[in-house]
Amino acid sequence: MEHSNSLVLIVVATFVAAGLVKGVTGMGLPTVAMGILGGLLSPVVAASLLIAPTLVTNVWQFASGSGKRAILARLWPMTAATFLGTFAGSFFLTSGNSQATTAALGTVLVGYAVYMLLARPMSVPARWQPVLSPTMGLLTGLIGGATGISVVPVAPYLQALGMDRDDLIQALGLSFTASTVALGLALAFHGAFPAANLLTSAFAIAPALAGMWLGQRLLTRISPRVFRRMFLVWLLLLGSEMLLRPLL
């Protein structure tokens, strides 16, 4: 991948924006970054740039609270399934069919945005969780491995478990960490994670952390609900453009 001043500016701006969304909502860094970079670069290159900043911010998110052991004990089957599913889904991402991968990425963005805008809050009974948790983890991994976005269906599922906000943020961090590690290993396995991309990905850590810090500061000045709705509408428009790109 060639490096230029314009690429550096794009990467910095993208990860500041993605970190800001994550700081406000607790998720969204890979979603925003893949949405922007996936429209400018090939999806597999965009996914490789996500690895370092996504891993650092998600480990930080998971480690920031006091309920790590309880959350890990509760969600390890989902986490393991996410890891395996991500590795399996990566075969689609690295297939070389950029048009199909971009369309899949657009589909995920549109589906996630529509669901989160329209869906009513749900509750998952405890007796269903031993079966649903690994199932949701596997589906999340397959989608994340194929598109670089590992937020569905795990985010709506975890929100339906009735956790308090702090535990939910940590649980999301755990799931995203598993998918990021698996995606990085899968890209390396497929030979799609060259040293140049690794360096650029590492360079993106600082902008992502800066954006995350800014988002956490903004929480005291803006309505998270209004911000979330604006974010989802933007995802809907971006995903629609990706789906329509072959026709345009």
Please give a structural write-up.
- This protein is mostly helical and 248 residues long.
- It has one domain.
- It is built from eleven helices and no strands.
What order do the helices and strands come in, and which of them pair?
Layout: H1 5-25, H2 29-37, H3 43-63, H4 68-93, H5 98-118, H6 129-147, H7 154-159, H8 165-189, H9 195-203, H10 205-218, H11 224-244
Key features?
mainly alpha; 11 helices; 248 residues
Mean pLDDT: 89
As a percent range, the share of strand residues is under 5%
Q: Which segments are poorly predicted (pLDDT under 50) over 5 or more consecutive residues? A: none
The tally of structural domains comes to 1
The helix count comes to 11
The dominant shape is globular
What Rg is obtained from the alpha carbons, in whole angstroms?
Answer: 17 Å
Annotation, overall tally of beta strands: 0
Instruction: Give the % helix.
Output: over 70%
Query: SSE order in H/E notation?
Result: HHHHHHHHHHH
Largest sheet, described in full?
Answer: none
Query: What structural class do the secondary elements suggest?
Result: mainly alpha
Ends: how far apart? Answer: 26 Å
Summarize the structure.
With 248 residues, the protein is mostly helical. The protein contains 11 helices and no strands. Helices cover 77% and strands 0% of the residues.
